[in-house]
Structure formats: structure tokens, C-alpha cells
Amino acid sequence: MRSKYAESGVDVKKRGIECFRSILNNLFPEAFCVISEDPNLPGYGLVTHTDGAGSKPVQAYLHWKETGDIRWFKGLAQDVLAMNIDDIICVGAKPINFVDYVAINPLRVDKIGLLKILSSGFEECINILGAQGVKLLFSGGETADLPDQIRTLDIAATMNGRVSLSRVLTGEKIEPGDVIIGLRSGGKTNYERNENSGIMCNGLTLARLCLMRKDYQEKYPEILESPDGKRSYYGRFKFDDYLDELGMTVGEALLSPTRLYAPVILKVMERFGEYISGLVHNTGGGLTKCLRIGRNIHYIKDNLFNPDPIFILIQRESKEPWKYMFENYNMGVGFEIIAKTEAASDIISISEKYDLETKIIGVCQKSRDGNKLTIKSQYGEFQYP
Amino acid sequence: MRSKYAESGVDVKKRGIECFRSILNNLFPEAFCVISEDPNLPGYGLVTHTDGAGSKPVQAYLHWKETGDIRWFKGLAQDVLAMNIDDIICVGAKPINFVDYVAINPLRVDKIGLLKILSSGFEECINILGAQGVKLLFSGGETADLPDQIRTLDIAATMNGRVSLSRVLTGEKIEPGDVIIGLRSGGKTNYERNENSGIMCNGLTLARLCLMRKDYQEKYPEILESPDGKRSYYGRFKFDDYLDELGMTVGEALLSPTRLYAPVILKVMERFGEYISGLVHNTGGGLTKCLRIGRNIHYIKDNLFNPDPIFILIQRESKEPWKYMFENYNMGVGFEIIAKTEAASDIISISEKYDLETKIIGVCQKSRDGNKLTIKSQYGEFQYP
Fold first, then answer.
1. I need a labelling partner for B305 at 20 to 30 A (CA). Which of A301, B165, B251, B380 fits?
2. Residue A154 is nearest to which of B150, B222, B224, comparing CB atoms?
3. Radius of gyration of chain B (CA)
4. Would an 8 Å CB–CB cutoff place A229 in contact with chain B?
5. B96 at the A interface (CB within 8 A)?
6. Is the backbone peptide bond immediately before A385 cis, with ω within 30 degrees of 0?
7. pTM score, whole prediction
8. CA-to-CA distance for A266 and A93, rounded, in angstroms?
9. Taken in order B198, B202, B206, B208, is the CA torsion positive or negative?
């Protein structure tokens, strides 16, 4: 059976990156992010990382068109920051600075309004991080007017981090017996203002198509590409439909900004870094992202959180098989810490101080032939790859 | 009179950047690029810069669709590299590494084919730069499948450079009497393989619309955005029409990769850095880009190169007033070195060793109220701003 997601036009398996392998300057090919040499700082690696907000800007555009309220774009600032900062900390790096890249269709989008609200979003994130001891500088970026390429808008960022070469977290030290500690993507930490749906920044294409009503694509043809007329929005909901099961509107759930885990993780690393063998940010690839690090490790995840209601809703509406749901979405676990058992309760108690729900969700076992993952859930038992 | 370019949906004046001013970490606000502090290297600044290939990918897409040859995308690799490296060297920085960001519509574009040819393009540039003593590392990047945002494809890159804080070229030392040395954007240097049209990476939206035939937009509606039906391709040419005046096909002229000036400029800086008061990469804003640096300087450009044939053609076909042509396009001068008179002939002779046509195109005078520019050309005399 083919994934609904693949049918929707998005490849979550990222086969494209192989094409660049031969020219890559990467000191630690096994690590979660590329680490390059730094000519002026021989003992340190530079982690230069790029990621975007996926198709979340399309959902924000829809809300803006329906309400006239430019603030619906604000959360995208946190999305692109989180997508980058929480990736680079996975190799043990500390963030330095970032730039943004905003490509827009100026014939559709209020550019100045958008840039002002993004600036305010970046400022808020920089302040939240700063208050938690994480310094991050903004170094500008680019806004490109590309009416013939961009239907509405696209937002990405590039972030630099730095890591001492003697302290890189490559994942090589992950051993059978290590526990997998899961940090929730939903809920509300004490450094956040609002309840989060947990959706983060991946899986939005399928989520939009299966939840939002077809009326929208008729009203705003710019929010859909359908060369053969087969792709369409096929949902039952308006963006502002409040659902009891979500505790928010469908649109709010889809636009919940990606959680910033950096304050928690950097604190955990500072206190218990020596007990940590791997860090995984569950973005593209969802709960299978851990397969990217470690050597011959069989990850068993048998004590997951109940998936946040947005994931249940997406599955119910799209009929995406559960096996793929765990591959497309974080399913409630946004970040994983792979650590020695003896440190687990201390790590969990640090995380809980931020009101971030955290628990042991599984364990590492030995595999004979490469990395593997078994998910045992109330929806069935699944093997990856 | 309004510029044809503004009508075409692109703002060359970049008013958007002001929106981010308040959160910017910039040690030298007057310099050509943002320079941020670097926490681990106190005496050095980090220059993190993002720029894209503009709408050149649309032209490449058209060639690919018409010919089936994926190699038409290759030059875009050099375009995004040049757009970044030749900006960061303007503050006296040396490049470190870069990442790419490729956003595509996977329903239209052969992703794997595209990524492979871009990888090969990057490799070639890295090798050309390396052979000229300019080391540049590739640190990966992101490929995003965004069918509902990207009509065809968009390509950008982010580059890091580093500069000693005591050697930053801020432009503050530009004085009346300094000469403006212009480096051609067209022709062929001895480290390049092919003759270049000189177009670089700016002004492509107007160029495409005024040169390419309307048939193309009917055949490939994905290459045009026209919410009200008013925008359209209105040119007389097919992409493969050979024009004697260009010495190449119209499509080749539009896709000529942006020249890499870094080998020449870094050599000039090494030898005559003390005589250089400003460096300007003539991208968005064309020949008016110099207005961005210097204090109360009146730039007089009265000895420009004859604009390369592609610029003459674009003007003839679009009827863009000449005043705006100099604002939208580099008009034959891709890079400017502002230097003390006594070093001019030495600087020119270094540049000419690369077979890069170079000459004094003007001079700096005193202005009483901010920076000004006067262009005296065979097409008239124009004042900016």
C-alpha cells in the first residue's frame, strides 16, 4: 500500500540528499547534522543548517485571506527557528546566528505586513531563548519577489552553530541498554504562551489537504497545485471550526508553532551531557528519524505518549495507514534523548521543570544488520525501515 | 513614469529590509553586508549571507521542458554561489562554507535529475575557485517538496565568511577623489569556459517577459503568475533563436551564469587592499548599488562600458526607460572597486591578467546631503536617488 502522503506529492524519505554526498565537507558523516571544518578555529566545527517551515505558510495564507489578520503569519518565525535550532543542538552544537529567506509572490501577499510580523515573531523567539540562557543573533537575510515561482510564500532560515570537535555527539556511543527519553510536542511549557497541538512543521501538506474544505481551493486557487486535477483539498472543516477533541480550532491546531526544545536540551546537556549518547529532533521522517544515527541499533519504542488529538484527526480523515502516520508525523514525541539508564530520572526531572511532559518511551537493543526500529502502539506493531 | 520592472511585479528597491532593522545584530551598519559578532572569535566578524538565483530557474525550466536536457539547470549552481560569495567579499570577508536551499514542485520537476546536476555545478565552481586559491566548503542544505507553494523551482544559498574586525571594509573611507574601477560582467575570463552575456542574476523577470514568446505561457502555464490576466510574456523570441547581435541564442544569454569575481577581488585585496575604500557587487539595484555605501559621496559614472548586447535588447523590446535600465541591470559593470587614484593602474592590471576587462568608469565627489549618483551615458544623464 502506498502512503497517502506520497500520493499528496511529498517525499518524506528525502532521497535527494544522496546527490550531494560527493562534494560534502562533513567531519562526522554519522552525526545528525553536517559539521564542517572551520579554518580559523581548528578545534571547533561549524554547523551550518538550513530548513524551512514546509507548507505551513499556505495554511497561514488561508487564515490571512479569510480574516485579514496578518498576525496569522507570526508563528512561522518560530517554526523556521525551531526547525533549525533543534536540529543543530542534536550534534552537541550551540547556536550562533541565523538568517531568514522569504520568497514571496508580491502580487498576492502583503510583503511589508508580512515582514513586520515575521520580525516581531523572530524578536519574541530571540527573547524567549535569551531569557532561558540561549543567545541567538539575527544576521538579516533575503526577501525575494518571485511572482512566477512562488504561488503565495515560502519561508526558510539558515542557522550557524558551533561545537568543540572533542564533544561532538555523533550517535556512535549509542549502546544496547540505552533508554529513549521522549519529550512531548504538544501541551504547554512554562516558557510558552499557548497550548500547542504538537504538529510541528512536517506533514502539513497531507494535513491541509485532508482537513480543509474544497471550497477554499475554489476561492483561492493559488493554495493548490493540481496539474492533472487529481490533487484536491477534501476535508470537512473550515479553518475556524472549533473542535472539542482538539481544544482549539482546526486552523489553530495546524498553525501551532513548532516547539523550541533548545532551552531544555541545552540545560540537560550542560548537566548530564556525559550520559547522553544521542539526540533526535523528530522532523521529516517523524518517529523513524532515530534511524539516522547509531550503529546497528534496534530502537524499540513501546511506551509512546497517546498521539495528540491532531494526529488522530488527520489519520481519521485521511485514512493514512498508521504505519505511515508514525513516519510522517512526530505523533506526540517532538524530541528524543538517548541516554544511559542511570541518568534517565534526572534528565526527566530537568525537563519537567519546564512543564514539558517527558518519559522513557523505549529502549535500544542490538541489531545485526543496520539500524532498525520497532514501534509497538495501540494502533499496531510496525517495523522500519 | 513608472518602471516596467515595477509593473512586472518585482521591487528592486528592497524596501522590505527595513522591517528587520530593530532585531539585526550588525557590528557595521554602514557596510555592504551584515557582519555579526562571533562568540568564540572575538577579533573576527561572521558574515552570514543569503541570496538566490532570482527567477533564472524559470528560464532554465523552460529550456528543460523544451529540450529534455537537465543540464540547463547547471548554471544555477554558479548563479547562487556568485550571488553570495561576491557580496560577502565586499566587506573584506573571506568565504568559509555554504549551504543550498532548493524548493521544488515535485509534480513538475525531476528532483533527482535536478539535484545531481546542481551538485555537479557546485563541484565545478568549488574547483574553479580552488584552482584560483579560494577555498570554499559545501555543508549540505535542504531540498523541500512544496507543490502548493512552488510553481516549478526556487534556488537559494547561504554563505558564511569571516573578516578581521580591524580590516572590515565599511565604505566609510571612501573620499572625494577616489576613482571607481568597473569590472565587466560580460565577456570571458581565463577561468571561465564560455562567453558570458553579462546578465548576472537580476532583472530576469522583466527580461523573460519581454523576450520570450507568449506561446510558452500557453504551453507551460506554470511559468507565469497573472492573477488579473494582465501580466504576460510578450516577447518575439524562442529560447533557441540565435541572434547575431548577442553572439548566442536568446536563451543562452538569459541563462549565462553570474560571473564569480572572488578570485580577482581577493587577489586585488591581498595586493592593494590598503588602497581600496569600497567594493560593490552590482546585483539588485544595478548600477545604483554603490549608493548603499559611503558617506555623503556623489558618485559620478561617466565612462561606463557600452552595455552588453543583452541589455540593449531588453531595453529595445521592453521600452524600459534608460534611467530604470541602469537601476534594474548591471549594464555591463558587474563589480566596482572604489580606490585611491594612485593604485588604479595596478589594480586594473591585476584584473586584466584574468582577461577581465576593467577600467576607471568614474570618480567620487563630495555631496552635501547623503549619497548621490550621476550616470552620464550615451543614453542620457540620470540622477539617483
1. B251
2. B150
3. 20
4. no
5. yes
6. yes
7. 0.96
8. 9
9. positive
Identity of residue B249: T
Superfamily of domain B4-12+20-194+255-384: PurM-like C-terminal domain (3.90.650.10)
CA separation for the pair B183, B334 (Å, rounded): 6
3-class DSSP assignment, residue A192: coil
CB contact (8 A) between residue A52 and residue B101: yes
The reply to whether omega before A309 is within 30° of 0 (cis) is: no
d(CA A212, CA A59): 9
Beta-bridged to residue A278, according to DSSP, are: A338
Å between B169 CA and nearest CA of chain A: 17
Q: Does A146 touch chain B (CB under 8 A)?
A: yes
Domain ranges of chain A: 4-12+20-194+255-384
What lies within 8 Å, CB to CB, of B94 at 6+ separation is: B161, B162, B163, B266
Strand runs (DSSP E) across B24-93, as ranges? 36-37, 44-52
A9/B107 touch (CB, cutoff 8 Å), yes or no:
yes
Rounded mean pLDDT of A111-124? 96
Asked whether B204 and B287 are in contact (CB, 8 A), the reply is: no
User: Does any CB of chain A come closer than 8 Å to the CB of residue B13?
Assistant: no
Flag whether the ipTM exceeds 0.90.
yes
Distances (CA, A) of B203 to A146, A172, B240, B274: 11, 49, 20, 34
Could you tell me how many CB contacts below 8 A there are between chain A and chain B? Answer: 264
3-state secondary structure of B245: coil
CB-CB: which of A22, A26, A44 is closest to B119? A22
From residue B16, give the alpha-carbon distance in Å to each of A141, B11, B51, B300, B330. Answer: 11, 9, 15, 28, 21
Contact yes or no for A108 and B227 at CB 8 A: yes
CA of A203, closest CA in chain B: separation in Å? 11
> Hey, of A111, A148, A159, A220, which one would you mutate to test binding to chain B, going by the most B CBs within 10 A of its CB?
A148
pLDDT recorded at residue B277: 98
Model confidence band, residue A18 (pLDDT cutoffs 50, 70, 90) = confident
State residue A1's pLDDT score.
57
Percent of chain A with pLDDT over 70: 98
pLDDT < 50 regions, chain B: none
CB contact at 8 A, B290 and B299? yes
What is the per-residue DSSP string for A114-182? HHHHHHHHHHHHHHHHHHTT---EEEEEEEEE-TTTBSSEEEEEEEEEEEEGGG---STT--TT-EEEE
Rounded Cα gap, residues A233 and A92, in angstroms:
41
Rounded to the nearest 10 degrees, the angle between the axes of helix A75-88 and helix A262-272 is 20
Nearest chain A residue to B153, by CA: A149
Q: Cβ contact (<8 Å) for B23 and A119?
A: yes
Considering only the beta carbons, identify the residue of A106, A141, A156 that sits closest to B9.
A106
CA nearest to B253, candidates B181, B314, B298 = B314
Please write the tens of the pLDDT for every residue from A137-165.
Answer: 999 999 999 999 999 999 999 999 999 99
Q: CB distance from B127 to chain A under 8 Å?
A: no
Q: In a mutagenesis test of the A interface, which of B148, B151, B202, B232 is the best target, namely the one with the most A β-carbons within 10 Å? A: B148
Query: Please, what is the average pLDDT of chain A?
Result: 96
pLDDT of residue B22: 87
Query: Could you read off the pLDDT of A180-206 as tens digits, one per residue?
Result: 999 999 999 999 999 999 999 999 999
| Nearest chain A residue (CA) to B229 | A107
Report the residue of A20, A122, A210, A283 to disrupt the B interface, i.e. the one with the largest count of B CBs within 10 Å. A20
A-chain residue closest to B119, CA distance:
A20
Tell me, yes or no, if A112 comes closer than 8 A to chain B by beta carbon.
Answer: yes
